[in-house]
Amino acid sequence: MKAPRQPAALTPEEIAAVRSCVLQEDAHVLVLNKPAGLSSQGGRVRAHTLDDLLWAFARSNGKRPELVHRLDRDTSGVILAAKTKPAAGFLGKAIQAHKLKKTYLALVSGAPEPRSGRIETPLLRTEIGRESHMRVAALDEPGAQASTSLYRTLSAADDAALVELSPLTGRMHQLRVHMASIGRALVGDARYGGALTLAGAPAPRLMLHAWKLTFPHPEGGDRTVSAPPPEDFLRLTQAAGLGTQDLT
To answer: Which CATH number fits domain 12-239: 3.40.50.1100, 3.40.190.10, 3.30.750.24, 3.30.2350.10?
Structure first.
């Protein structure tokens, strides 16, 4: 029998910080705005993950919210947790049925051509040392997974563009590899060939933000929660001469 997880020992500062990330909360779900640089779960860095920080929301019976999906460590934005076991089961089934609609914002060097489109390139997970990577693959290649992403250019300048991305499948690093496959790797994404500067300004991290999430709610109907992009994303967007007025 699996032993119950022990609560993480959180500092008052950590508790205050994760509580300040709450976008929406009710009896069933907790929606947070994850900061960049914070791992969702696991990882090799000896620091608290978002999963650990959810102990700040533990109830008197020792139960606490459980993440139902993940974001890459350097990706900021909306992330969903279930507060009860029935809610976790409900949302898990919704994910399997592709009922969660995720919308991201990203910065790329130059506008894609065409300005909007659908990428249906299969992806294959590979291990390089201790790191997991994804790469483009032929559909009949062993282990290849069918993958679909939508993209749309929201704003473009001379050498930069702000794009809206929507993954229709949930592969690891899917948006990053799909955009790299059309020659528009995400700014700050050193792993997949992205530029480390934009309009002469350094990219502090992977410029990818989980902007909106629409999901079926255990009480019925759909809910949409959005997270405004963080300051580092907005600063680089403005430095590149791209509009930010509709993002906050």
So the answer is: 3.30.2350.10
